[in-house]
Amino acid sequence: MIPDSHRSFDSVRDEDHLDSLLSEPTPGVVEAMGRLEGDLVVLGVSGKMGPTLAWMARRASELAGVDRTVYGVARFSDPSREGWLRDRGIEPIRCDLLDPDQIDRLPDAPNVVHMPAFKFGASGDQATAWAVNCFLPGLVCRKYRRSRIVAFSTGNVYPLVPVSGGGSVETDPLRPVGDYGMSCVGRERIMEHFSRTLGIPIAVIRLNYAVEMRYGVLIDIGRKVLAGEPIDVSMGHLNAIWQADANAITLHAFDHASSPPFALNVTGPEVLRVRDVAERFGELLGRPPSITGTEAPDALLSDASLAGRLMGPPRIDADHLIALVADWLRRGGTLLDKPTRFEVRDGQF
C-alpha cells in the first residue's frame, strides 16, 4: 500500500518525520520505478535533496515489488550521510566525481540521476563552477552511455521575465544572467551533445526553489520576519515547490527521458509575491515584516504547467507550505543555514 501521510498534516514533528515525508513516493513514482529495469545510481547524493530522493527511489521500488540496488555516490565530506543512507537500504559509494578514473570504477547501472552542481561561490570561482557544471556531465555521459539519465538543471538558465507573463516555458530561449546560469546552459548543451551522438535518453530537470523545513526561499523569508530583519522585495516574485514533490517529479521523469533530451520545469504552479509571503509569515509568527525596496516588473520565474499535465499537481500548495514553515520556525526546528539568495538579480552567486 502506498503511504498517504501527505493527505492531511498541519505540522512536521521533527527531522525524522520530515525526512519520511520528503521521501514518500506518489503512486506515479511507484509505477515509474516499477517500469524501470535494473539498478539506479544517484550521483551527488549528499546534497540537500539527494538523500531523500534516493530514499524515495528505494521506497518506491519496494512498493513496486522490484528488487533493485540504489547506489548513492558522493565525496561524503559529512560521513554521517553514509550511515543515514545505509540505514535506509541505499548503498553509499565514495567518489570524487571530477576524477575520471574514479568515475570509471563506479558500478554500471541502466538508470542514473545526475545531481552535482556548483552554484554558491560560482562568481568567485568560475573555473570550478564550469568544471562541475560542464566538464563533469561529459564524463558522466561517457561512463553511462548505455543508461537512461535524469539530470538536474535550474531555472537560472532562463532570463528574468515579466511577472505578468507567468514565467518561462521549456521552449523559451535560454538566456541566463551571470556565470552560474551560463555554466548551467553549458551543462545542458554538453548533455544534449552526448544524447544526440550516443543516443542516450535524458530528461533535464529545470528546478526552481525546492523547499523543506530546514532550507529554501520560504525559510529565508520567514527567518527574516521572525528576526525583524528587513526583506528586500526588489526581486518581488518567485516560484517554490515542496521538496517531496520535486523528488517525485524527478523520479517520474525517467518515463520521459529521450534523445534529444526532454526538458521539464519543476516548481510550484503559483507565482508568489514576496511581499505577500512576508505579510503572511507576519500574521502566523506575530511579527509584522520590515519591507524594503520596490518590486521590479520582472523576476526569475518558471511555468511548470507541463509537469502538472504529465504528473499531476503538487501534493502541498504554497499556502500550506508557508504554514508548515512558520510552525517549524516558531518551534525552533533545525535549520541548515544555507540561504538561497533568491533576491539576487545579477546572477552573481
Automatic annotation (TrEMBL):
<feature type="region of interest" description="Disordered">
    <location>
        <begin position="1"/>
        <end position="24"/>
    </location>
</feature>
<dbReference type="Pfam" id="PF01370">
    <property type="entry name" value="Epimerase"/>
</dbReference>
<feature type="compositionally biased region" description="Basic and acidic residues">
    <location>
        <begin position="1"/>
        <end position="19"/>
    </location>
</feature>
<dbReference type="InterPro" id="IPR036291">
    <property type="entry name" value="NAD(P)-bd_dom_sf"/>
</dbReference>
<dbReference type="InterPro" id="IPR001509">
    <property type="entry name" value="Epimerase_deHydtase"/>
</dbReference>
<protein>
    <recommendedName>
        <fullName>NAD-dependent epimerase/dehydratase domain-containing protein</fullName>
    </recommendedName>
</protein>
<feature type="domain" description="NAD-dependent epimerase/dehydratase">
    <location>
        <begin position="41"/>
        <end position="207"/>
    </location>
</feature>
